[in-house]
# Entry
Amino acid sequence: MDFGVSRGLATADIDRLCAEGRVETIARRGIVPLDGPTVVIVIGGFFRIFRNAAFVRDVTLGLASRGDVLAPSAAFGDRAAETGAEALSEGHVLHLAPGAWNACAAAEPSLNLKMAASIGKRISRLQKKLEELSRTGVEGRVASTLLELAADHGSPGPGGSIRLEVPLSQEDLGRLAGTTRETCSSIVAEFARRGYVRGGRLRGMLVLDVPALEALAESGP
# Structure
């Protein structure tokens, strides 16, 4: 599994953009609306991206972290697919007016390419999640979510394992996988019993058997 996957904007990009926008600190469980006029860039922490839906509180679309660009569709005149971002730990975001983004991108054209990569990755993940809801059982969805977290936020651990260092609770993991906290906790405990992972908490969890999780992620209901 590859590490260091592109997370969108680099530190130098963020430093340049911070001079043109407004930085906001978001408390844990605070919400950043994503249907406003600004481009929102995550510069610290982890955020659960969601969309409001009929008959349920919301639908989780994915996880965003440093360098991810949010809400560009609203900023540039189209309806936003993403309703809001919930901070899973204290986080920081940068708000940029569309004109400020355009001016920075005119001086540094690679910014638009990085924005497109960041957005495209989330759209691809969303399409995958929608397919999983219809064809994959809950075990497979939890396995797929753990693999995504390992690819995006993992680092090499002992004996070829992958160490996760994300401040997510079992409830957070369950919402990312489209299930309840109780079900998610039970499944993670079963994965640990089978030797696929070690540790019940996501901060410090070791992913031990990637092929086994990949097989589950590809399995049917």
